[in-house]
Amino acid sequence: MTCTDFQNKLPDMIDGEAAGEHAAHLKACAVCSDLVADLRAISTGAKVLCAADEPSPRVWANIQRALEVEGLVRTPRQAGGVLIPARRHWAPAWLVAVAALGLVGFGILIYQNRSAQPIPVAKETPAITTVATEPAAVADDDQQILAQLSPAMRTTYENNLKDVNAFIKDAEESLAQNPNDEEARHFLMDAYQQKATVYELAMDRTQ
Amino acid sequence: MSSRQRVGAVAVVMIACAIAVSASEKKEFNYTVGPKASITINNQFGPVSVKPSTANQVIVTAILQSNKVEVDDSKIGDRVELKSHLLPGASPDNARVEYEVLVPADASVSMHSTNGPLRAEQLHGDLTLEGDTATMEVHDVSDSHVHVNSLNGPITLTNIHNGHVEISSVGGEVVLNSVSGPLVSVTSTSGKIHYDGDFGTGGDYKLTSHTGDIEAIIPADASFDVIAKSMRGDVQNDFPLQPKKHITFVPEKGRSFVGTAGKAASSVLLRTVSGKIRLKKR
User: Fold this and answer.
1) Which residues of B238-257 are buried (b: 16+ CB within 10 A; e: fewer)?
2) Distance CA A178, CA B251 (A)
3) What are phi and psi for residue B159, nearest 5 degrees?
4) Which of B255, B273, B205 is nearest to A194 (CA)?
5) Cα B182 to Cα B205: distance, rounded to the nearest angstrom
6) Are A172 and A130 in contact (CB under 8 A)?
7) Smallest CA–CA separation between A184 and chain B, in Å?
8) How many CB atoms lie within 10 A of CB A14?
9) Among A179, B144, B180, B235, which residue is least crowded by beta carbons within 10 Å?
10) Backbone phi, psi, residue B153, to 5°
């Protein structure tokens, strides 16, 4: 049995015991046994957290509304909403638990900040704020660069900047939704690198 | 059309050609340089082609389209710079310059053109190509750093060995044929990325796009570790991969796959936000 085979069955083992070849793999593989131990600890912690600190439904509704206003999440298309997602049959339960924990922490942070004083979420969470605050600054920078180009080149650069800005926005939204996702972080870095390339080329053209 | 009219039309065409030929001007520059010289060609409009010379000579042939452009050249030590200098009244048509440049094979070459095309071949010094819509072609290059920055021009690299390759293209298609080396990195926003090769030995291959599709065609005996992820697009793997012993994430069917081929000599990362990824056996 490979780690992949084992981890496909992982959700069924978080709250129960492994049996047969799964148990044998769990015993033999340090990586999978560590993973199971961590997930069980998270699962237990999540239950304690829910029992102790579960905010009222009104709090959740306020958080969701705030996130929508900030543009950090989209309006849910199905019952259950973003904060209480309907479970998909393919989603591993442990992933949902981890995501829920992350979201709970994030939501409580935002809620506490908002109830303490009406400052934008952006000031407390710089990695995410760019989605809400950057477009105006980005548009200014873009316009400055474009203004220096000849009319013949301007359209080409304008179109390319639109594409790259869409890449950045996509990457920022992904990172805002999954702040710990390394891939999303790499995408954002790559997207900014692309924008740097466009700026560099544009500045070469203006010399 | 009567025979008189035909003769008239031919005459007009011949006169136009004669005017065009007489308006263009050919210039040649020669420099003697030491080992690992640095050559920079900045051509606003028109092609640049770079090939190896037989000795430690830099030989430049420039064909200027009109008197609205001139070539500024300089040589300081082993650094040679050529620049198309646009004069009042210059336009993309009349300011075009065609450069044919022969350089020592170990020279570092940097070339820029808005509309190109840009070509470099049979060199083993570092190469930098930059352009907006320029077609870019690099082939038969080894032991080089190859850096390519482009907006929308198609980019083709062929037979690059032991290369340190970094390509950034916003919308142009990127095609890599038999490209291998310690680092091969391609980032594209909307352009497609196509890789046809064996991923070499001991290399790090990263192909990233926003909306562009990524396709890799690999021989059956290739040796690599692969992680392929599309956040919103489909992934398809036709290559027989072995599951990895240890993985850091659980692949999502249709969106990502992970595996090993052969002895996992190289590391391959294919990732896109909403493009498709396809890994195929040749």
Assistant:
1) ebebeebeebeeebbeeebb
2) 17
3) 55, 60
4) B273
5) 8
6) yes
7) 9
8) 16
9) A179
10) -75, 145
Q: In what order do the strands lie in the sheet with B136-142?
A: B25-32, B57-64, B97-103, B48-52, B118-121, B136-142, B155-161, B174-179, B193-196, B214-218, B277-281, B235-237
pLDDT at A95: 44
Cis amide bond preceding B243, omega within 30: no
Which residue, chain included where needed, has tokens 């390319």?
A160
SS3 B201: coil
Q: What is the reported pLDDT for A79?
A: 37
pLDDT value for A145: 82
pLDDT digits (tens, 9 = 90+) for B134-186: 999 999 999 999 999 999 999 999 999 999 999 999 999 999 999 999 999 99
Shortest distance, CA B1 to any CA of chain A (angstroms): 40
Q: Are A66 and A109 in contact (CB under 8 A)?
A: no
Q: Is B170 on the interface with A (CB under 8 A)?
A: yes
- Residues from chain B contacting residue A97 (CB–CB below 8 Å): none
Rounded Cα distance, A100 and A103, in Å: 5
Q: Are A172 and A125 in contact (CB under 8 A)?
A: no
Chain A CB contacts of B273 under 8 Å are 167, 170-171, 174, 187
If you search the block for the tokens 């019952």, which residue do you land on? Answer: A79
Residues of chain B contacting residue A8, judged by C-beta atoms under 8 Å apart: 250
A contact test, residue of B273, B274, B277 with most A CBs within 10 A: B273
Closest CA to B186 of B164, B202, B171, B208: B208
10-residue stretch averages of pLDDT, chain B, 282 residues long:
62 54 81 95 96 93 93 95 93 93 96 95 96 95 96 96 95 96 95 94 94 94 92 91 79 90 91 94 88
Q: What angle do CA B74, B79, B82 make, to 5 degrees?
A: 40
What ipTM did this prediction achieve?
A: 0.77
Asked if the C-beta of B251 comes within 8 angstroms of chain A's C-beta atoms, the answer is yes
Structural domain boundaries of chain B?
23-128, 135-282
Distance separating alpha carbons of residues A85 and B262, to the nearest angstrom: 41
Q: Does B258 touch chain A (CB under 8 A)?
A: yes
CB pairs under 8 A between A and B: 89
Instruction: Indicate yes or no: pTM above 0.80.
Output: no
Kindly state the tokens that stand for B135. Answer: 């077609």
Instruction: Give me the half-sphere count of Cα atoms (radius 13 Å) on the Cβ side of residue B95.
Output: 19
Q: How far apart are CA B31 and CA B131, in angstroms?
A: 26
Candidates B111, B123, B90, B122; CA nearest to B153 is: B111
